[in-house]
Design brief:
3 strands, 232 residues
């Protein structure tokens, strides 16, 4: 086999294909529809929103909206509505991780909600503390469950990517990479594979490389093989 040296472009391609394979068999946690429903209901009960809606519906305001004057412009925003499809909930107390005080979470609503807004927003942001006490108690539990699953998924993905990067960095040639991670052959281009059919004159201690990179070849191989079975 010929000695095919690892290039920066080859390393980037292998990393991308490895992560695409991981993402294919480890999709992001699906959103809890119950959380979206509860947030939608809670928004309608936010005291400030209720006050704005009441003000916009006031007969005096409605009567004066027909006049295009500067005086009318001061109340027109309270009569303007925006159909919102996403809510960014901020300042949610974190209950599952003692090292984290609070977090933010973006939730896709099951159906759009109409809120008072001068601009046409698609995403509506508000603080967790603007909700009523009853809604805060219910949403905090569901939001923490959703965020914990999302955080765990992100951490696992990050760890896998770091192990892939360390393996790639530790190998100077494609042959060395395949000694450590045989399934990586499925990530190589046809041109690179063709170059591997001559004698190899240099070897490395594959086990030592795995240990330095904290790399689990069985898990990584399973990722690539399972992804290949799923197809494009």
């Amino acid at each position: 086999m010929a000695t095919v040296r690892m290039t920066a472009q080859m390393s980037n391609d292998i990393e991308k294909k490895a992560m695409d394979a991981w993402d294919k068999i480890n999709p992001s946690p699906t959103q809890n529809p119950e959380l979206a429903s509860k947030i939608r209901v809670a928004i309608n009960r936010v005291p400030l929103i209720a006050k704005l809606i009441d003000f916009g519906n006031d007969p005096i305001v409605q009567e004066n909206l027909k006049y295009k004057t500067r005086l009318t412009s001061t109340v027109r925003p309270f009569d303007t509505r925006s159909e919102v499809t996403h809510v960014l909930m901020e300042d949610i107390p974190c209950t599952y991780d003692p090292n984290q005080k609070q977090f933010s979470l973006t939730v896709t609503l099951d159906t759009p909600i109409s809120v008072p807004a001068v601009e046409r927003w698609m995403t509506f942001d508000l603080s967790f503390h603007q909700l009523t006490e009853q809604d805060r108690n219910e949403i905090m539990v569901h939001a923490n469950n959703a965020y914990e699953k999302k955080a765990a998924h992100s951490t696992t993905r990050y760890d896998f990517r770091e192990s892939i990067l360390q393996i790639i960095k530790s190998c100077n040639t494609v042959k060395q990479l395949l000694d450590v991670w045989p399934a990586a052959e499925k990530l190589l281009s046809p041109e690179t594979i063709q170059k591997l059919h001559t004698k190899v004159t240099r070897k490395i201690n594959a086990e030592a490389v795995r240990e330095r990179a904290n790399f689990d070849p069985n898990a990584a191989n399973q990722i690539i093989l399972t992804s290949a079975l799923l197809g494009d």
